[in-house]
From TrEMBL:
Protein's name in the database: YbaB/EbfC DNA-binding family protein
Organism listed in the record: Actinoplanes utahensis
Length: 129
């Protein structure tokens, strides 16, 4: 059936596959840790609004400068929403960079991760480039 040479070759292939799988798992763990630690802070163009988002895109900090008192609340509300969108867009860029540095942005895994974050953070697709 199999001679010793074929068995050694089969074992070598199995060892190579195991090594590749272990390496990919390690890279995936490293990426997971990097992504969990990410946050992005963006300030509005006028400097009156600053928002910080977590890796999941959740608003974790909002800073309003005193100058917001001098304008209508509706203007401030629009600025908060626009700045939040900018922070989420920045988060997608950070996710892309972290992915590229670990599993590769062009790998199937990398593309899936980046697309998932983009769909979650900007579900209407705006801000992706």
């Amino acid at each position: 059936m199999f001679d010793g040479r074929e068995l050694r070759e089969a074992q070598r292939l199995i060892d190579e596959w195991r090594s590749v799988i272990e390496e990919r798992a390690g890279l995936a763990r490293a990426l997971s840790i990097r992504l969990a630690r990410l946050s992005e802070t963006v300030r509005s163009p006028d400097g009156l609004v600053a928002v910080t988002v977590s890796a999941g895109g959740d608003l974790i900090a909002l800073d309003l400068a005193e100058g917001v008192r001098q304008r209508p609340a509706a203007v401030t509300a629009r600025e908060i929403v626009a700045t939040l969108r900018a922070a989420r867009t920045a988060m997608i860029a950070s996710v892309t960079a972290a992915t590229a540095a670990t599993v590769g942005a062009d790998s199937a895994t990398g593309r899936a991760i980046i697309e998932t974050y983009a769909a979650r953070l900007l579900p209407d697709g705006r801000g992706r480039g």
